[in-house]
Write a structure and sequence with these properties.
Helix content is 37%, strand content 19%. The chain is an alpha+beta fold. Strands 8, 9, 10, 11, 12, 13, 14, 15, 16 and 17 form a ten-stranded antiparallel sheet that branches. Strands 3-4-5-6-7 form a five-stranded antiparallel sheet, covered by helices on one side. The termini are far apart.
Length: 676
């Protein structure tokens, strides 16, 4: 154990209640002994599966198992021969834009050009280094993974870069390109990259074995890629045999390292682990351990769906990005199981479908998702090329999985996602306008009317709090079917503590700040913890044919002497589409109050006294924000900040900022509406 890990352990001991020390000490000692045994196995090269061990781990002769690999039903992806070619022509005819985008990305993968986590298209050269963060140049060494320091912000390196490269999204893209075109070169490159990864990443000896989630997503993508390329000459029996051995190594690693920890709520990590076991259990049935993996994964997912997803269909981690990931994990695994004759408990299935309904409600008129909480671009398969803040692929998948024509219609170009999973639904009847919703699980409120779309966050953690931001009572606003006021998103996790906290702070959200303090304290060194003490709550939520009205409050500034609750009222008129926002802060004494409105990067603002006129090139009309303040001098001003629509990539944008030194109680009203 390194000095850094010992220091981190001691820090955790100080932060935890003393009553937890005995059982946590037992857990640490058990882990240390287990790591010692495992380290010795790795050092003796005894962790890898040998050909003889693989043969002993099969429930049928090796030749039969090799022949069956890649032939297990997986939506339309296991189609072969003339049937596949007919489907490929259908895909090109029905989804021409996605067809071209898949081939373009496959060409880049063949040339080892990758655009990951905001890197921009980068040439990695003839030999891919799977353990290197090619954005910073830092490389993790080959050694026993549990002795590595994977996260160290002082390096400026991000382990998510090699992890994402190793997840095999590009292998799926190469498999799709072969499936669609019959061009053998795509399959050859797929097999070459896969073989390279296996050669360069022996079990437990590189950073890519850092957790079970990465192994689970990786092996699920391997299963998809090998299924898509099953007809190719490049996928030789020898490679299929090697695939079975690597799948066995992954299954054993995942099952031994499930990310469920006593005293902590489960998260998307544990769900991913279970999904990996389901994929292996269904798609590698000739491994004797696969049935056990399937049962652990399937039953675990059925239980976790009811724990991590509320009855309203929203994930409990406080992030729209992770909501999409969890929805994709559940729907993909459940659909795969059902297509192969394995039952899924109805309550869990309904929760998974409800996640797509929640995504439908939150999707902005421009097709993008509000960026509430953390955003890391996380996906399971990424079957449809699309921007990371476009979550409609979940609708495309759910349309086929649940037979929902309304999802199919709303998915737009991302309806191509569903094609790979099965028959697409027939044309939908005329769609009714999505209604306004209150999602209690996430504390999200959606107000909608005729091209106006507002999303407000007023939720407290019901599960892990590592992906929450200081965004209580913050909102996004679309008018005229276009985004004007947006959440700035997330730029980085572990490569820079300063960048991580810049996007988590109060001033990075469309809310109010008092005396410069954070709504919830941001603790140095705690990149995935936000001590949530502000107690946000929805006071009132009504939706009538005439208007929607949200009232929420939090007490994040109550630790300041003389400061009470911040209450925000947002009203949306259904006839005009105008938005009224009223902020009130209770208390007494003189304090500094700041408000922030972050604009979409395409929006420009002009200030005239208490008004800000907003324009964007693709809008037919201007939007105007008017501030009404009694007894207060000074008006709004414009400043510059960042917006990150996806992880690792940020762009300059305008923020409207107001500042005032004023007496409490304080009240301010502003209206947001399109000019005639």
């Amino acid at each position: 154990m390194t000095a850094r890990k010992i220091a981190a352990l001691l820090r955790q001991v100080r932060l935890r209640p003393w009553r937890e020390v005995p059982w946590r000490t037992r857990r640490v000692l058990t882990r240390l002994v287990g790591n010692w045994v495992e380290r010795n196995r790795v050092n003796r090269n005894a962790a890898a599966v040998t050909p003889k061990q693989l043969e002993r781990s099969l429930n049928r002769p090796l030749g039969e198992a090799v022949e069956r690999a890649g032939r297990i039903p997986l939506g339309r992806m296991h189609a072969s021969g003339p049937a596949r070619r007919d489907l490929a022509r259908q895909f090109q005819r029905v989804h021409p834009w996605v067809y071209e985008a898949i081939l373009a990305e496959a060409e880049n993968a063949c040339a080892h050009r990758f655009d990951l986590l905001g890197s921009g298209l980068t040439d990695l050269g003839p030999t891919i280094d799977w353990s290197r963060d090619f954005k910073s140049g830092f490389r993790w060494p080959r050694q026993y993974v549990k002795d590595m320091v994977l996260v160290d912000p002082s390096r400026g390196a991000d382990v998510k870069v090699p992890w994402d490269l190793s997840r095999g999204y590009q292998l799926v893209r190469l498999g799709q390109a072969y499936w669609l075109t019959d061009e053998e070169r795509f399959a050859r490159e797929l097999m070459a990259q896969w073989s390279s990864w296996v050669d360069e990443n022996p079990v437990l000896q590189t950073c890519n074995w850092g957790n079970a989630m990465e192994a689970a997503i990786r092996v699920a993508n391997w299963c998809v890629a090998f299924t898509l390329s099953r007809d190719a000459a490049a996928q030789t029996p020898r490679l299929r045999e090697r695939f079975l051995g690597a799948a066995l190594e992954h299954g054993r690693f995942i099952a031994a390292n499930l990310e469920r920890f006593e005293g902590y709520p489960t998260s998307n990590h544990y769900l991913s682990d279970l999904v990996g076991l389901v994929y292996l259990g269904v798609l590698t049935p000739d491994l004797t351990e696969s049935r056990e993996w399937l049962e652990i994964g399937r039953r675990g997912l059925e239980g976790e769906a009811l724990v991590q997803v509320g009855a309203d269909g929203f994930d409990y981690e406080g992030s729209t990005n992770y909501h999409r990931l969890v929805g994709e994990l559940l729907l993909s695994a459940f659909t795969l199981a059902r297509q192969n004759g394995f039952d899924v408990a109805e309550p869990a299935w309904k929760r998974a479908v409800a996640m797509a309904e929640a995504t439908l409600a939150c999707t902005r008129p421009d097709g993008r998702a509000p960026l509430i909480g953390d955003v890391d671009n996380g996906r399971l398969h990424w079957l449809t090329p699309e921007p990371p803040d476009d979550h409609r692929s979940l609708l495309g998948l759910a349309a086929v999985s649940a037979g929902r024509a309304d999802f199919h219609k709303a998915a737009g170009r991302a309806r191509a996602e569903g094609f790979w999973w099965g028959e697409e639904p027939a044309s939908a009847p005329p769609a009714t306008a999505p209604r306004s919703r209150h999602f209690e699980t996430a504390g999200l409120v959606v107000l909608r009317s005729h091209g106006t779309h507002v999303v407000v966050h007023c939720g407290a953690p019901r599960g892990p709090r590592g992906h929450f931001h200081n965004d209580s009572l913050s909102f996004e606003a679309c008018l005229l079917d276009l985004a004007w006021i947006v959440d700035p998103g997330t730029y980085a996790y572990t490569s820079s503590e300063a960048d991580r906290n810049h996007f988590r702070r109060t001033a990075a959200h469309n809310t109010v700040q008092v005396d410069g303090i954070e709504i919830n304290a941001i603790v140095p060194g705690q990149l995935f913890d936000l001590p949530f003490q502000c107690n946000p709550r929805v006071v009132e939520w009504t939706s009538t044919p005439e208007r929607d009205c949200f009232i929420g409050e939090h007490e994040g500034f109550s630790r300041l002497a003389g400061v009470g609750r911040h209450r925000r009222t947002i009203t949306l008129g259904h006839v005009t589409g105008d938005i009224e926002v009223i902020d009130e802060i209770a208390g007494e004494g003189e304090h500094d109050i700041e408000t922030f409105l972050h604009l979409d990067p395409g929006v420009r603002g002009v200030v005239s006294r208490n008004r800000v006129s907003l324009t964007r090139p693709d809008s037919p009309r201007e939007v105007e924000i008017v501030f009404f303040v009694e007894g207060e001098t000074g008006g709004p001003g414009l400043a510059e900040d960042w917006v990150a629509r996806g992880y690792g990539k940020r762009e300059k944008a305008t923020v409207i900022r107001t500042t005032a030194r004023t007496q409490l109680p304080w009240r301010r009203r502003m209206t947001i509406g399109a000019r005639p």
